[in-house]
Amino acid sequence: MSDIEMEDGLPYDPDQNPEEKRVLRKEFRSLGKKFEGDAKFSHDDISKALTRQDALFDKVKTTQEATLDSELLLRLTTLSNQKAREMKSGSGAFDIEDFVSRLVTFMGGRKLDNQNLDEDGEDEDVYDLHTPLEWHKIGRNALAKSRRVPVVGFMLGPLSIEQKTRAPVKREKLEKNKAEQTKPQELKEEDISRSTNETTKNVATLEGILSETGPINLFKFIVNPEDFAQSVENLFYLSFLIRDGKVALETSEDTGEPIIYACNQPEPQDYIDGLKKRQIVFEFDQATWKRAIEVFDITQPVIPQRTQTGMRIGNKWYG
């Protein structure tokens, strides 16, 4: 298949010799690796690389090699731009005051006839600030050197710009309050004195009481009319017995009251034979606690009042 001439005159040959393409790619990649990293490159290095790239581009006939060429060209262009930014004139190479003075003279600015002496005793140039300057003279000269259309504000802005530096962030306030900062307490296993053993003991106590009372109204069993917190705890401990199948919860057909009673714990075979566990969400707030005391006329707790125990967290105790 012969080469196909594209619209811009570049040859396109999808059937280019594979070996030729392989060598061309290797050349592009090798040339690109020389300009990777933070190493410093001279203008001569960049110029030689561009000359070599032009020679390689004459052999490009497929899109993949053209992509490598464009990536290399972009990298070299970026480096050239950086080099141009690094170029700075010396302190004595360009005199701003002399430049402005020449501009004023070129635009028809004239000195006054009288001259003044400055502090050093030298003649000081004094210009007539009321005479308009002929800016069109500079415009004609600038148009001869550039095709860019002059815009309004072309000469605006300072002739020298100081680079802004970021002020260091003050951390005085943080360091001032550093002494007031406290390290969070680290909880260890031995710090929590109220462990699972206490829960197990209270659950066993409720089981023994229920086996003695027989079937009883749920609220009459758990409610302590003098202590709402212990009533909640009683319901919590009772839930373990119901979960393990040691206590049954039913609704009385006659009165509709929730009745609980001790029962034999089911065997694993019972669940295989079709016995199913059921879970319910029981809401027990302070309003329900007061309503239960009033409705069921609860005056004495079935479960004796427990001594308030504390729980130690770190080096502090919480009741």
UniProtKB/TrEMBL annotation:
Tagged with keyword Mitochondrion: no
Q: Which InterPro entries match?
A: Nse4/EID, Nse4_C, Nse4_Nse3-bd
- Please report the stretch or stretches of sequence annotated as the Nse4/EID protein Nse3/MAGE-binding domain: 69-123
Which cell locations does it reside in?
Answer: Nucleus
Acidic residues bias spans: 1-10
- Would the keyword Nucleus turn up in this protein's UniProt record? yes
Where composition is biased (Basic and acidic residues), the residues are 167-193
Entry keywords, A to Z = DNA damage, DNA recombination, DNA repair, Nucleus
Main localization (coarse): nucleus
Which residues does the UniProt record annotate as the domain Non-structural maintenance of chromosome element 4 C-terminal?
A: 215-303
- Renumbered to this chain, region (Disordered) spans 1-20, 167-196
| Family in the record | Belongs to the NSE4 family.
Q: How does it assemble?
A: Component of the SMC5-SMC6 complex.
Q: What does this protein do?
A: Component of the SMC5-SMC6 complex, that promotes sister chromatid alignment after DNA damage and facilitates double-stranded DNA breaks (DSBs) repair via homologous recombination between sister chromatids.
Stated name of the protein: Non-structural maintenance of chromosomes element 4
Organism annotation: Marasmiellus scandens
